[in-house]
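TICKET #2291
ISSUE: user wants both folds in one file
ATTACHMENT 1:
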Amino acid sequence: MFSKTTEYALRAIIYLAKHSDINYKIGIATVASAIDAPKSFTAKILQKLTKDNFPISSIPGPNGGLYMTMEGKNTTVLQVLELLNEDHVINKCVLGLQECNEETPCPMHARYKLIKPLLQDMFITKTLNDLALELDHRIRLNNSILPLKTEKKRNKTPTKPEK
């Protein structure tokens, strides 16, 4: 339904909404690994989202990283789609035709007009925080639900029992 860029952006943003705040910043490598996306592509997407008046904040330096403000977490999915220029997916003809209406419908117009208001309502009312809470550390990838990768745990050497 969306471009790969938008899919990665939504997954990254939801991950940040779920796992970050002003006191806990996350690095790009961690986000990329968690959403199973290329690091350089994730960096490019998140850089755009920190510049375009989107409430993802970035702090440089060794103790820096990315985080979302409460304002950012209350952003709707539609606002994200608009920022990424993907709102046409739910606002225009499903086939991308310029002239698609009741008088000159595309072949999918009659069926799509029944579900279009439901999609619009979902994207208008769902916030990133809603999705983060509902996600519960899981993400849908390739028609299967997989747990989101979390930060790598250090290998702990098992302790030997005391004698």
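ATTACHMENT 2:
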Amino acid sequence: MARLIAMVLAGIVLPAFAHAADDEYIRRFLVPWSGGGIVKLSLEGSPWRVSCHLNPTSGENAVTLAGNCRLKLIFFLSNDIEAKLRYDPASDSYSGTYVVDGGPPALLSGRRKDDTLTLNVRWPKPVNDHLDATIVITNDTKRFTLTTIDTIGLNGKPVITSDLAFHVAAPAR
């Protein structure tokens, strides 16, 4: 009988802890972010340095990060970006969309392990001649990194097409 009670409690309490942990993970993004890094516009091209600013909005089990990224030395080349992520406690997974300059959304889906969220990306139209990539986000509360990987890459070898690092933005004066 004690074992049955323990199993029932585990079935009720453990999902609640998982939900709380993932709600806490979503809340990590609820501050303004600044950062940048490198972006490759093609698999064979040279990397370009970008700077980015993102601002959050939240919903239940969800966060939206919207802002822009621009090439460091060319101020008129800027892209508005918006990423929406939602955590589903029933499936213990994340889903969402990623939009650049108001274009069609890429679909995101994946799971978290510790501080790292791995998302499968389905582009709305071919990027580097195919529709799929992977985004890996690591957020330790003080900073987060975002790496986009073209999993087919060159000659079947994965290629990192963006490698960005963000820190909590300083308050506006």
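RESOLUTION: both attachments delivered.
EXTRA DETAIL ON ATTACHMENT 2: Strands lie at 33-40, 47-59, 62-71, 78-88, 93-100, 106-113, 116-127, 130-139, 143-154, 157-168.
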